Amino acid sequence: MTGVRRALRVRAALTSLSANAGAGWQRVRRTAARPRSVVAGQALWVLSLTFVSLPVPVASVDFVSDRFDASWVIGMILAVRDHLQWGTQIIWTYGPLGYIDHPVYVFFRQWLIAVVATVLIQLGLFAALAVLLRMWKTPLWAWIVLGGLAVAPSAVIGTPDLMGLFLGMLLAVIALETGPGRRVPPAIAAGAGVVLAITALIKTTALLSGGVVIAIFVVCAILQHRRRVALASPLAFVGTFLGAWIVTGQALADIPAYVHGTLELSAGYSAGMSLGTPPGAIALPAGLGGLFVVALAIGALLLWRRRAWSGVRLLVLLLPVVALNFKEGFVRADSGHEFLFFSVVTLAAGVLVAAAAARRMPELRAPLLPASCISLGLAASFLIAVTGGEMPLLQVTGTVGEYSTAWTLLTSSQARAAQAASTLSQARNYYEFPPAAVADLDSGSVDILPWDIAIAYAYGLHWDPSPVLQGYSSYTSYLDDQDAAQLASPSAPAKVVMVNGSIDGRYPVFDQPATFRALLQGYTADTVVGGQYLILSRAANSPGEHAPVTTAPGQGAGTTCAPMGADIPVPQRPGQYTFASLQLRYSLHGTIKDLFYKPADALIQFTVGGSSPELTAPYKFIPATAADGLFVSGYLPTVGDLEEAFTGVGMQPIQSIRVTSANPDDYHGDVCASFSTVPVNSPA
Predict the structure, then answer these.
(1) What DSSP character marks residue 600?
(2) 576 forms bridges with which residues in the sheet?
(3) How far is it, in rounded angstroms, from Cα 350 to Cα 369?
(4) Which single residue of 355, 490, 506, 639 could bond 500 by disulfide (Cβ 3.0 to 4.6 Å)?
């Protein structure tokens, strides 16, 4: 009996030991499997968000409601096809890879590159976010918050230049956050340089913001005593930029001109592209946006005082990305550009929430979490309001269908031919040029001003463009003179198609004063097509060579200065064109506003007519080009008036001009007009 009891006790002990061993083994297995499951979950997070928010693979072309954008998008694609040189032959807000932002199907190669690049950049953005959250040991709820941002209305996700800028910034943060003993950070820093260089060739403004991000990164890495990491990013940026520049068919000698054109476009943006929106209409969103930018700067200072270096690095790297988009968003101050800005704010605030919630950086919780949550809520509310609640998550079925179409284009030559024919047909149906006009234009090279480049595409014309892709963007003297020099050169196009139109309530012939003067001196009017397109031909008596047009042509006719708001008489001489070079300078107050936001618009009015003169409505005009020689011989509100200007007869004479502003304090002193004249249809 005793032996039986002993055997039972031994059996129970063995059973218990076996059970404990099994439970221990299960715990070991679960512990070993947990990292794999976590990594798999995070990979699934990246892939799912990429799939749900896939960008549009074939961008639509709508000439009826989006004629201006359709024009320059097709212009960029034609410029790439024709191997035109950016900086000298093309000056635009997008670079030689700008078509990646707009996957319009015009030519197969550019379309395919655009789609593949967009998906890869988007995948890289989500992967970088996942790596950063993993490094920070961010709780699950923060992953869910950032995931929600991807399926909420956003102009960042699906826009390669914005995604690339964010991706480059995140890689810089990752490189700085990785421990100094690891060999990976130089490679990650180099990756940041590569991404930012590609982005700078997509959107020219990324050349500025990306350069600032790299400069800040280098300073932070040097302060960490990590020289290899500090060198990796700028060297990769320069190497990638040069390599991609050559691969895209650009000449190395044109890089200085590309940088110069970018700086000119940036310098003139505030005055050139501002909208006269009533202050009350943008006060709240602009105020919230400005507050977020200031909060980033103040937060960086507060964290610096606390010696919370991870937070300081994150904020100072985010700051140029957000600040640049603030200016782009509220200079135009339309819902589309505000949508872009608040999309950037939403993603930036989401990253800050994740940083504040991270277990690795508890010192950031108190200063960052409340402000980030508030910013996130306000920005998300704005995005949902302006988009009507449209979210990628609710559109995923349609997106998948579009990628099915994209796959068909990739694999079927017949589908590609049909898609190209559809785009071409849309262009021809919109413009409807008569065969005789097309035959006339097809006899030589053609420029198209100030937009409607798609005419050249629609009818297969020999397009020979002025450098600035859309004339309304010539808002500095340098940009205006580049177009004027092209039209006054021996290689000027034989024909020019000209529309008497502008944007934002501007007076059309004042958009490019020097360029318009070059047209008057080198071209004659042929005919008007479709009631809006004036066809110009190179004048038969044009000399073999033209010097670049100067800002003060012809014979001086006096200078008159008057306070802002007062009339300035315009001298008119029979048989002479009259030009006025206006000197209008910003005050200190206006200069500061121009740098960080935008000054009040300058407006110009004309007293026109003979015996019973009338004062016209005010037009917006650009002070930076006002000194280039404004055409003030006659008032040209219609295409018929524009045609008469090339003969010098029949125009309504301008008796006086008046410059005003809603905020005269943004300008300094009197308005001075220096007048000059040249004979009608006589080269200067």
Answers:
(1) P
(2) 679
(3) 10
(4) 639
Which segment of 189-193, 507-511, 592-596 scores lowest on mean pLDDT?
592-596
Take residue 226 and report the two structure tokens written for it: 């990590």
Give the least confident one: 258-267, 457-466, 642-651.
642-651
Task: Give the pLDDT band of residue 647 (cuts 50, 70, 90).
Answer: confident
Burial level of 411, CB count in 10 A (0-12/13-18/19+)?
exposed
Of 481, 653, 524, 638, the closest CA to residue 578 belongs to 653
pTM for this prediction: 0.87
How far is Cα 326 from Cα 345, in angstroms, rounded to an integer? 9
d(CA 247, CA 184): 28
Nearest to 471 by CA among 503, 494, 425: 503
% pLDDT > 70, the chain: 85
530: left (phi over 0), alpha (psi -120 to 50) or beta: left
Q: Which residues pair with 677 in a beta bridge?
A: 555, 578
| pLDDT higher than 90, residue 507 | yes
Helices 108-136 and 184-202 meet at what angle, rounded to 10?
140
Counting every residue written for the chain, the total comes to 684
CA 13, distance to chain mean position in Å, is 75
What stretch of H or E contains 499?
A: strand 495-499
The three-class DSSP label of residue 581 is strand
CA dist., res. 172 & res. 216, Å (int): 10
Cα 346 from chain centroid? Answer: 19
Model confidence at 446, pLDDT cuts 50, 70, 90, reads very high
Give the distance from CA 475 to its chain's centroid.
Answer: 16
Roughly how many angstroms between the first and final C-alpha of the chain, as a whole number? 129
Residues 6+ apart with CB under 8 A from 360: 135, 136, 137
449 vs 500: CA distance, rounded Å? 9
pLDDT band at 545 (very low <50, low <70, confident <90, very high): very low
The token duo for 652 is 């309504």
| Strand 445-449 with 495-499, pairing | parallel
- Edge-to-edge strand list for the sheet holding 555-562: 555-562, 667-679, 576-586, 630-631
| Token pair 């998948």: residue | 400
DSSP state of 450: S
CA distance 636 to 500: 8
pLDDT digits (tens, 9 = 90+) for 308-347: 888 889 999 999 998 888 888 888 877 778 888 888 888 8
Q: What is the mean pLDDT of the chain?
A: 84
**pLDDT average, residue stretch 246-275:** 92
Q: Residue 623: CA atoms inside 13 Å, Cβ hemisphere, count?
A: 26
- Structural element, H or E, at residue 560: strand 555-562
Task: State residue 599 phi and psi, 5-degree precision.
Answer: -80, 170
Instruction: Quickly list H helices, 333-453.
Output: 335-357, 365-387, 396-411, 413-431, 435-441
Average pLDDT over residues 577-600: 87
Contact 569, 627 (CB under 8 A): no
Burial class for 664, CB neighbours closer than 10 Å (0-12, 13-18, 19+): middle
Torsion of CA 248, 249, 253, 257, to 10 degrees: -60
Peptide bond into 623 cis (omega under 30): no
The answer to whether the beta carbons of residues 174 and 188 sit under 8 Å apart is: yes
What is the tens place of the pLDDT at every residue in 365-415?
Answer: 666 655 666 666 666 666 655 665 566 666 677 777 788 888 999 999 999
